[in-house]
Amino acid sequence: MQKLAICKRSTSSTAKMRSKMNDFRAFESSIHSLMAASSIPGVSLATVENGEVKVMPMGVAELDAMRPVVETTVFDAASLSKPVTAYIALQLVDSGAIELDQPLSRIVPKGVPPQLASSPITVRHVLTHTSGLPNLRSKEPLRTYFPPGSWFSYSSVGFTYLQMALEAVTTESLEALAKRLVFDPLEMQSSSFQWHERFNEDYATPHEDEKPLEKHRPAAAQASYSLQTTAGDYAKFIGAVLDGTSLTEATRRQWLAPAVRVPREDAIHLADSAPETERDVGWGLGWGFETTDGTFFQWGKMDGVRAFAMGNPHTQSAIVLLTNSNRGLRLMEAAAKAVLPGHHPAFSWLQASVTE
């Protein structure tokens, strides 16, 4: 009887494995079809399920050279840099080096425009995108467009300000902080906020409408966009997010909880009055959130590059999507179905608020 019971469990387990493999093959086939339909040259997709990482490289790293994408191919992560910076900041909060609600102007008063220095922008404001700062620098003097903390308006500039503060309180560069607090502990051996010669061996070339662009090679770390990484490396980072690695329980709870709702069908709202907001999409200390089930996400966008990450701490599952095409976000919904089935209000918000 004992032998029969073992046999039954083994058969059931084998059937489940076969079913999952068939589902995964169908999913991989659908991604290939979508890539072909949108003329997306290359993709590196990683899934995380209960600590297990799988990487699926597809397509080519450069159309002209027809170099295939492999697991070690390094991509621009664009704004997927921001959650890594948030992770660094929160570890420094836990260590007492900086406070979430400490005005950054008290840390970096030099080299900051007077109007900005007088604004009480904090770490919390930057991570929740409620600083009042614009998304990108322009020819106009840098200023806040609404009182910090009032509402959400996506700001890459805010992360530059935060970087200045983190480097000031630690006397370390962002790259050194990332290496000490993220890359080395998580064994992200192909990741850096700045370009290294070793990346020349295997990198993804950006493409805009199927035309190769010059590869971005950041000489210095930029908190909001300069991360160079592989899908497998970033999946290791996502695994740490799901586990709460290196954070106190109190900080982990704050990190994985929405704090403010985002504007309806828009990521940037610099008007002088509060926006209408999305019912089911919000933002927390470095991540966007689907407020119904706690699924977190972040997208990335640069010339010829699109990236996306999404995870759920309750199911301990996530996906990472890195692409070398301006059309790459067309794959995000299909990619999520691999491990995160169900309705995702984040997709409709992103489709309305992020241009291709």
From TrEMBL:
Gene3D superfamilies: DD-peptidase/beta-lactamase superfamily
InterPro entries documented for this protein: Beta-lactam-related, Beta-lactam/transpept-like, Diverse_Enzym_Activities
Highest taxon listed in the record's lineage: Bacteria
One Pfam short name: Beta-lactamase
Residues covered by the Beta-lactamase-related domain: 29-339
Name of the featured protein: CubicO group peptidase (Beta-lactamase class C family)
Taxonomic placement: Bacteria, Pseudomonadati, Pseudomonadota, Betaproteobacteria, Burkholderiales
